[in-house]
Amino acid sequence: MKLLFLGDIVGRAARDAIVAEMPALRRQLGLDFVIVNGENAAGGFGITAQICNDLFDAGVDAITLGNHAWDQREALVHIEREPRLIRPVNFPKGTPGRGASLLEGANGERVLVINAMGRVFMDPLDDPFTTVEREIDACPLGEVADAIVVDFHGEATSEKMAMGHFCDGRASLVVGTHSHVPTADAQILDGGTAYQTDAGMCGDYNSVIGMEKDEPVNRFLTKMQSGRFTPALGPATLCGVYVETDPRSGLARRVEPVRIGGRLKSTLPSPSGA
Questions:
Q1: Measured between alpha carbons, how far is 168 from 76 in angstroms, rounded to an integer?
Q2: What is the span of the domain harbouring residue 251?
Q3: CA-CA 20 to 30 A from 53: which of 81, 83, 169, 176?
Q4: How many structural domains comprise the chain?
Q5: Which residue, among 195, 215, 212, has the nearest Cα to 204 in the 3D structure?
Q6: Does 51 fall in a domain?
């Protein structure tokens, strides 16, 4: 299988870029399944039903979330009827929606998408390691699922790396989100799981992690709030990771970083693997 994961979508500039680029990306790379993190898609805070529909119509197969999951109240209702919208699996019992979803790829492949949130410098949630393991054990790679992707939404690099090694040999891809800066460590771990500490964001990098610069800088200088955070509206860079999996085991046999457009240097996998 050929999988594409794109990091946190920050605001309209990123949404427009994904809608514009996705059809060509699917054709060019022969993608079987596309996942995006959409927790910052609505003005930097949460996601709406309309944004979900726009992304699905463009060719996205699944949307994961994070700590901004409920910033738009309508998401609480929409997630109950949309299995392709996935919130962190270790949210408290009784939280609307689902933290893992078994979805179908372009050619009928079964893809288990798991979203989990870290606890280091984040909200005090249930243990993400045991909750992710529970979902993997219920839908094993190579037996029930043809691919398993874990979006680990966290602040601490160490916690993300630990999750990668914890899932090694049991997932196709473990990728971090939340920090909005792509890391240079895309790799295949010893057990065959593709890993990248953070996918980066889809957004304008002439910013402070996707937001217009003035207000964040002012808050660091004065410790006072003078306005709202608003997404930067310059040309967006789409950032993420591309993975090819073995058709029998579901483990990774190729992983490549993806950066398209905007200010960052572009890198796109060759379809042939050359």
A1: 32
A2: 2-260
A3: 176
A4: 1
A5: 212
A6: yes
Residues belonging to the active site: 68
Give Cα 29 distance to the centre of its chain: 18
Can you read off the two tokens belonging to residue 263? 């200010």
The Cα diameter of the chain in Å comes to 57
CATH code, 8: 3.60.21.10
Task: Report whether 164 contacts 187 (CB < 8 A).
Answer: no
| Within a domain: 245 | yes
How high is the pLDDT of residue 226?
86
Mean pLDDT per 10-residue section of the chain, whose length is 274 residues: 97 95 95 97 95 97 95 94 97 96 95 97 93 98 97 97 98 97 98 98 94 91 90 95 97 97 93 58
pLDDT of 227 reads 87
Q: CB 211: neighbour CB atoms within 10 A? A: 21
Catalogue the E-assigned strands of 137-251. Answer: 147-153, 173-177, 187-188, 194-196, 201-202, 238-245
CA gap 267, 154 in Å, rounded: 25
274 assigned to some structural domain = no
Q: How far apart are CA 1 and CA 174, in angstroms?
A: 16
User: In sequence order, which ranges of 113-267 are alpha helices (DSSP H)?
Assistant: 128-138, 157-167, 214-222
